[in-house]
Amino acid sequence: MIIAVTNQKGGVGKTTITINLSAALAILGYRVLTIDMDPQGNSSDGMGIETNTLDDTIYDTLVNDVPLSDIILPHQLDNWAIAPANISLSGAETELASDITRPFKLRKALRSEAEKYDFVLIDSPPSLGILTVNAIVASNALLVPIEPNSYALKGMSMLMSTILKIKEDLEHYTSFLGVAVNMFDPSITLHSSVTKTITEYFTSRKVFDTIIHRSRKIPEAEMHGQHIHAYAPQDEAARHFMDLAKEVVEKNNER
Ligand SMILES: Nc1ncnc2c1ncn2[C@@H]1O[C@H](COP(=O)(O)OP(=O)(O)O)[C@@H](O)[C@H]1O
Ligand SMILES: [Mg+2]
Asked: Residues 6 or more apart from 50 whose CB is under 8 A from it?
């Protein structure tokens, strides 16, 4: 299963979910590849990679056709690998401008690589530009993190129209795996009501049962370049990501 973790809104947890869900799946014994498609390189940083010293990154795969296998780095956790990004990726949009195959770059790069993994997770930037389009076109499932505030639904409708456009214009169909509610705070009444609205809107089948609560350990772990299961295995968030991983596995088995 190739999962694009996407939402054009920044700060909703795309990177956090990409890292910690990848780690949970690897801990469960699945072979996982995480692809960083954000020029900010946050998921590479969060996996403990020194991004500014890298020779080749996902940029070289997208722009210079360097095979994905040449840029992939192992993680110290068994079965987990990463295709890293750094700021060079911000040049990809303009450099690919004259390339008519540009929406399909990542999809093509993954063709010979995806079969080596049980799950590929793609982190995407907070925009609906060519990098996000590449992430969606390379995927066969979408996971959309949201923060349950009043902007959540508005952002979703923009994302939905992009997905529809990709389906029509590029004839690429990717299934909607689910919305993952993140940064939930039970003491904020609005969070509960927005979560309820979202569940009704998407139907409960399309919203993960696991709700990831706000945890102060999450930003701390990221700052240390670690996933939550290594940094704070006892924290509630570690359990949430493990539960989310099990739901993803279940949905994958149902396909
Ligand atoms: N469940 C959570 N609890 C606490 N902090 C979180 C949680 N999810 C994300 N964060 C923090 O919020 C910020 C934005 O999250 P991030 O995953 O980088 O969002 P995005 O990739 O969508 O921009 C980061 O500093 C991250 O550490
Ligand atoms: Mg991010």
From this structure: none
Nearest atom (ligand 1) to Cα of 184: 1
**Cα of 22 to ligand 1 centre, how many Å?**
15
Portion of the chain with pLDDT greater than 70, in percent: 100
Instruction: Using the predicted structure, report yes or no on whether residue 237 has a pLDDT greater than 90.
Output: yes
Residue type, 124: S
pLDDT, one tens digit per residue, over 170-186 is 888 899 999 999 999 99
Whether ligand 1 lies within 6 angstroms of the CB of 235 is answered as no
Q: Residue 223: which residues within 8 A CB-CB, separation 6 or more?
A: none
Any idea how long the chain is?
A: 255
Give the rounded distance of the alpha carbon of 49 from its chain centre.
17
**Domain locations in the chain?**
2-254
Mean pLDDT score, 223-234:
97
Name the pTM for this structure: 0.97
Second-level CATH architecture of 2-254? 3-Layer(aba) Sandwich (3.40)
What are the tokens at 101?
Answer: 């195959």
**Distance from C-alpha of 149 to C-alpha of 93, rounded to nearest angstrom:** 31
- The predicted-structure confidence for 116-160, as pLDDT tens digits, reads as follows 999 999 999 999 899 999 999 999 999 999 999 878 887 788 888
CA torsion sign, 232 to 3 to 77 to 9? negative
Side by side, the strands of the sheet bearing 119-123 are 73-74, 80-83, 32-36, 119-123, 2-5, 141-146, 175-181
